[in-house]
């Protein structure tokens, strides 16, 4: 197991390296950030000085090796725009995004799994049909439209919930979080729902399909022949088998949700990392882009590690490589 | 002696908006406590459906539409869902064909065994576990205490079927319905499983309905045998008697097609034609298109009638000496 984790981490480093190369080459091809950084009245000397300051006068490979040297010293560069270390910039915004994405994924499990179980258990019932049709809407309606609708109903018409910002935060382990204060929670409700509708629908449909498949399996028939109650069959025999695909997809989905949250963050003015990365791409702020993508790679690797371990717990037939 | 299980004119159909298709019809069986009956037929003859119908485990869109399943005098068809659950796995247990798929792959053996005990009896975890362990020991699984914590994939096919049998035996049921439990196994394993079940059933006085397509299995195991064809019982009687002198042309053909009855070098005998599909049953006797002695009479349905100490559904029984 340890060996397996080390393997995974080495793979992650390789992926991060390859990604850094691609970002360097790609941004170099798109153009220079100088024009957007310089004030309109800048002279030719200002311009040359800025290029030298940022190290953009050196050949690309040299810039890359300088960057690598920095990485080894724990320094991913300084933002061209904000003049702050890129890592700190992202880390200051990341908790907001993470907590929103995790809230959305949590909602998708809390609602999606039971709804899917019900729909799969009695597929003929009217309630199940409503769930399944509803999930099609959740799938196909665009997030920005749902988000605007939520604001219209719950903030504008009913005035129940705030529509923008993060609300009061409280520091936990040195990081400010919204979910620990009531005001923060209230601010989180609408964006989290907006972000999770797609996920709820997906988890619901996935669970439903899994339950229907499991219900026609021999082990369920045998469980019935053993005289077990429907509740026991559903919550133990079926659920544990159904959770295997659900965990896979939800794991992949956490990454997706963070990417999607750019849209949601914009609409709800949620001060997450999505806004910063969009601005940085616009300004060709290379240190921020590279640092962000590296963090994303690390995050994905960690998510996948966790998914694999959960897998292993759910299905005893799965052995991790090197075990 | 009153019968422990008595099945009267049991009928199971697939009911859809387009109409009904009969899977089994007019099934009549009687089983005394401790008795072993073989239920023999080809694939699609309705023998598994019969087993599941007795248990009330027929899945939609099929359903039991007629007849009675009298178990110790009570009609199981009239019981509520809760009442029939207290019979299943407790008084009547069932073993299925494919041991690779009947055990839940993600649950440990002890979980899958102890839940049966807990479903039917108020008993401590410790006691349930002990009973599970003893049952595993009874079916010949070495070091049962350790094996309890194993998962199904850590067992071979034969061992898994032993586990399934141990589960069936947990509550010391009055009846076990075994649906081709040895079909998916190697021949040597088949023989072991057969002898385990035979011994345990005899020791515990458990009655058995052994569903199989293999007449030779029935020969050594069952006192009575019912031969099914196209969802109906063709012939039913004492095993020795029926095997020695089959009266239904279908039974006769089945026995004649056993390789053991064949002269070395000569062609194997077979019953010509194929089993009819349930959606397209021949009129009258379902066997008549394949039957050498069929006449005009066979276009009307024959009834199951007592003939010479057995039940027979045929207008033209095979007579002694006239065997093909």
Give your account of this protein's structure.
The complex is a heterodimer of chains A (323) and B (324). Chain A has 323 residues and is an all-alpha fold. Chain A has a domain at 93-274: MetI-like (MetI-like fold), CATH 1.10.3720.10. Chain A contains twelve helices and two strands. In chain A, helix 1 (2-30) runs antiparallel to helix 12 and helix 6 crosses helix 8. Chain A is globular and about 85 Å long. The mean pLDDT of chain A is 83. Chain B has one domain (5-260, 285-312): Rossmann fold. In chain B, helix 4 crosses helix 5 and helix 7 (157-169) runs parallel beside helix 8. Chain B has an eight-stranded mixed beta sheet with strand order 6-7-8-3-9-10-12-11, with helices on both faces. Chain B is globular. With 324 residues, chain B is an alpha/beta fold. In chain B, a hairpin with a 2-residue loop joins strand 1 (5-16) and strand 2 (19-31). The chains are: A mainly alpha (323), B alpha/beta (324). Chains A and B meet through helix 9 and helix 10 of A and helix 2 and helix 4 of B.
CATH topology value of chain B? Rossmann fold
- Could you give the distance between the termini of chain A? 6 Å
Order of helices and strands of chain A: HHHHHHHEEHHHHH
Name the helicity range of chain B. Answer: 25-40%
* Low-pLDDT sequence parts of chain B: none
| Helical stretch tally of chain A | 12
Short description:
Chain A is built from 12 helices and 2 strands. By secondary structure, chain A is mainly alpha-helical. The termini of chain A are close together.
């Amino acid at each position: 197991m340890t060996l397996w984790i080390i393997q995974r981490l080495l793979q992650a480093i390789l992926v991060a390296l390859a990604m850094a190369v691609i970002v360097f080459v790609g941004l170099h091809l798109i153009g220079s950030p100088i024009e957007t950084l310089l004030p309109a009245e800048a002279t030719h000397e200002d311009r040359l000085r800025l290029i030298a300051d940022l190290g953009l006068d050196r050949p690309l490979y040299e810039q890359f090796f300088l960057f690598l040297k920095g990485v080894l010293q724990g320094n991913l560069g300084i933002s061209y725009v904000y003049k702050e270390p890129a890592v700190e910039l992202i880390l200051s915004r990341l908790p907001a995004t993470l907590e929103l994405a995790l809230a959305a994924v949590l909602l998708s499990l809390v609602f999606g799994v039971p709804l899917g179980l019900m729909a799969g258990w009695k597929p003929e019932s009217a309630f199940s049909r409503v769930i399944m049709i509803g999930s099609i809407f959740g799938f196909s309606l665009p997030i920005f439209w749902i988000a605007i609708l939520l604001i219209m109903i719950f903030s504008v018409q009913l005035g129940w919930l705030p529509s923008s910002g993060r609300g009061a935060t409280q520091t936990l382990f040195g990081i400010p979080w919204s979910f620990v204060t009531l005001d923060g929670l209230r601010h989180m409700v609408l964006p989290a729902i907006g972000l999770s509708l797609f996920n709820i629908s997906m988890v619901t449909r996935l669970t439903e399909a899994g339950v229907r498949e499991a219900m026609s399996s021999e082990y369920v028939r045998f469980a019935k022949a053993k005289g077990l109650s429907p509740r026991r069959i559903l919550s133990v025999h079926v659920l544990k088998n159904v959770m295997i695909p659900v965990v896979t997809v939800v794991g992949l989905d956490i990454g997706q949700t963070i990417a999607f949250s750019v849209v949601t963050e914009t609409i709800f003015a949620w001060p997450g990392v999505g806004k910063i990365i969009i601005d940085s791409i616009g300004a060709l702020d290379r240190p921020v882009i590279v640092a962000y993508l590296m963090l994303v790679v690390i995050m994905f690797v960690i998510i996948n590690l966790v998914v694999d371990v959960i897998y292993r717990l759910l299905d005893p037939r799965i052995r991790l490589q090197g075990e | 002696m009153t019968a422990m299980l008595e099945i009267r004119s049991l009928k199971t159909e697939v009911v859809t908006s387009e109409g009904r298709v009969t899977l089994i019809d007019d099934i009549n069986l009687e089983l005394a406590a401790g008795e072993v009956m073989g239920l023999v037929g080809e694939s699609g003859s309705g023998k598994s459906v019969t087993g599941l119908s007795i248990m009330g485990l027929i899945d939609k869109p099929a359903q039991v539409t007629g007849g009675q399943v009298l178990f110790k005098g009570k009609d199981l068809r009239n019981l509520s869902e809760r009442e029939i659950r207290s019979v299943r796995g407790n008084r009547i247990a069932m073993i299925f064909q494919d041991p690779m798929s009947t055990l839940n792959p993600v649950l440990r053996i002890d979980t899958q065994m102890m839940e049966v005990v807990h479903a039917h009896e108020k008993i401590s975890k410790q006691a349930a576990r002990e009973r599970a362990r003893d049952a595993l020991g009874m079916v010949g699984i070495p070091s049962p205490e350790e094996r309890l914590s194993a998962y199904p994939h850590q067992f071979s096919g034969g061992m898994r079927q032993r586990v399934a049998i141990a589960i069936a035996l947990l509550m010391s049921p009055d009846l076990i319905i075994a649906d081709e439990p040895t079909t998916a196994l190697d021949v040597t394993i088949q023989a072991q499983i057969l002898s385990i079940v035979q011994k345990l059933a005899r020791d515990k006085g458990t009655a058995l309905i052994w569903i199989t397509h293999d007449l030779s299995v029935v020969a050594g195991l069952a006192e009575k045998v019912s031969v099914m064809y196209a969802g109906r019982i063709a012939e039913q009687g004492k095993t020795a008697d029926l095997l020695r002198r089959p009266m239904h042309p279908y039974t006769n053909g089945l026995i004649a097609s056993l390789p053991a009855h064949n002269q070395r070098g000569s062609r194997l005998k077979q019953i010509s034609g194929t089993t009819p599909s349930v959606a397209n049953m021949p009129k009258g006797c379902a066997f008549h298109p394949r039957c050498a002695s069929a006449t005009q009479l066979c276009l009307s349905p024959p009834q199951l009638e007592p003939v010479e100490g057995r039940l027979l559904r045929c207008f033209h029984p095979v007579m002694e000496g006239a065997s093909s």
